[in-house]
Amino acid sequence: MKYVRLTDSKKRDARIQAVSPRRSRLGDYRNQQGEEVRSYRFINDTERHNPQNLIDQVSDMDELADRLIKEDPELDIEVAGRMIDQASQVWISGKGKVMHSARMMDIVYTPEGDVKAKKDFVNQEPTVTEDIALPWTGKLIPVRQVLQKFVLVRKLQLCHLDGLTFDFLHGMAKELQEKESMLLLGGGPKGKQPLIFQRNGSPFRGFLEGRVKGDSYLLVLHLSNLELKQVDQ
C-alpha cells in the first residue's frame, strides 16, 4: 500500500492511496491421477565441476572433449542430484568463482550489445513520495496509441481516502474518459523525471487511465519501462 500526491488539471493536489490490484490465484498443478504436483530443486554441479573451471584446466577443447568422454569430470557423483531445500543467492564472477565483495557499476550498451559507457553506481532516490505532488503534465495520449507504442508491465489503482478526494479523483477520471486519452505522468516538479517508487527501484513512465460509470470511477496508473519501436528493414 502506497500513498502519493497527485495534481489535477486545475492545479489542485491531494493525498491519495495507490494499491496493487489483487491477482487471481492460479489453480494447483496436478497429474493425470489428480495428485498434486510439486517443484523441487536439485544440485546440478559444484564450483569445482562447472563448465568454466573445466575449460580453464585444459589447453584446448579437444582435450576437454576427451576428458568428458573418458573421465566424466563434469559430474560430482557425491553431490549432483542431491535435493536442496533452502539456499542463499551469491554473485559469481566470469570464471565461476564466488564473489565476496563487488564494485557496483552502471554500464550502458549500444543496440548492438557493445559497451558504450561505464560509471560508478549512484543510489537513486525515489521520485514518488507523499511530499511531492505528481504534476498534471497536460500531455494526453490517445489510449490506442499508448497500447500500440508501450509495454505496460505494472499498474496501480488510485483510490480516495475521504469524500473530498472521491470528488477529486472522480472528476479526473471523467476528464480522461471524455478525451479518450491517458495522461503521461512523470516525477519531479515538471513531470520530466521517471517514476521511481523506492530507493534504487526501477524507473517507469506513467500513463493515467480514467473511467466513470454513474457515481463510480476507476483511475489506474499504468507503468511502462519498454517502448516499442519499428525496426528499419
What's the arrangement of secondary structure elements?
Elements (H helix, E strand, L loop, with lengths): L1 E6 L5 E7 L21 E2 L8 H6 L4 H10 L12 E2 L6 E2 L5 E2 L5 E5 L5 E6 L12 E2 L5 E3 H7 E10 L3 H16 L2 E5 L19 E9 L2 E12 L6
- Just name the CATH architecture of the domain at 2-21 and 125-227: Beta Barrel
The stretches of 5 or more residues where confidence is low (pLDDT under 50) are: none
Q: What's the N-to-C terminus distance?
A: 45 Å
The largest β sheet comes out as:
8 strands, mixed
Question: Strand portion, in percent?
Answer: 25-35%
Shape: elongated
| Helical amount | 10-25%
- Secondary structure tally: strands: 14
What would the CATH topology of the domain at 2-21 and 125-227 be? Ku70, Chain: A, Domain 2
Helical segment count? 4
* Protein structure class: alpha+beta
The topology string of helices and strands comes to EEEHHEEEEEEEHEHEEE
- CATH class descriptor name of the domain at 2-21 and 125-227: Mainly Beta
Q: How do the strands line up in the largest sheet?
A: 9-1-2-11-14-13-12-10
- What integer value in Å does the Rg equal? 26 Å
Mean pLDDT: 88
Defining traits:
two-stranded antiparallel ribbon, Ku70, Chain: A, Domain 2, 233 residues, alpha+beta, single chain, 14 strands
Question: Quick summary of this structure?
Answer:
By secondary structure, this protein is an alpha+beta fold. The chain is 17% helix and 31% strand. Among the domains are: 2-21 and 125-227, Ku70, Chain: A, Domain 2 (Beta Barrel), CATH 2.40.290.10; 42-81, no CATH class.
Describe the structure.
The protein is α+β, with helices and mostly antiparallel strands and 233 residues long. Among the domains are: 2-21 and 125-227, Beta Barrel (Ku70, Chain: A, Domain 2); 42-81, no CATH class. Helix content is 17%, strand content 31%. It has four helices and 14 strands. The chain has helices at residues 51-56, 61-70, 143-149, 163-178; strands at 2-7, 13-19, 41-42, 83-84, 91-92, 98-99, 105-109, 115-120, 133-134, 140-142, 150-159, 181-185, 205-213, 216-227. The strands form four sheets. It has an eight-stranded mixed β-sheet with strand order 9-1-2-11-14-13-12-10, covered by helices on one side. A two-stranded antiparallel ribbon has the order 3-4. Strands 5-6 form a two-stranded antiparallel sheet. β13 and β14 (216-227) form a beta hairpin. The model has no long low-confidence stretch (mean pLDDT 88).
